[in-house]
Amino acid sequence: ELKRRYDITAIPRLVILRPNGEVITSKGRKQIRERGLACFQNWVEAAEVFQNFSG
């Protein structure tokens, strides 16, 4: 089910989700390789922005 829902075509794959299951990025592995730990802050901020607008 997750494979279809998030269009997983290769393993490993890192999909970053908001608390409601909406995709922040489906390119988590690539972002970690390119930006290192800095990408985690971007993902947290993206999730928080969503919560502020939806709550």
From TrEMBL:
Gene3D superfamilies reported in the protein's UniProt record: Glutaredoxin
GO biological process: photoreceptor cell maintenance; sensory perception of smell; visual perception
InterPro entries on file: RdCVF2 (IPR029519)
Family annotation (PANTHER family): NUCLEOREDOXIN-LIKE PROTEIN 2
Protein's UniProt name: Thioredoxin-like fold domain-containing protein
Lineage: Eukaryota, Metazoa, Chordata, Craniata, Vertebrata
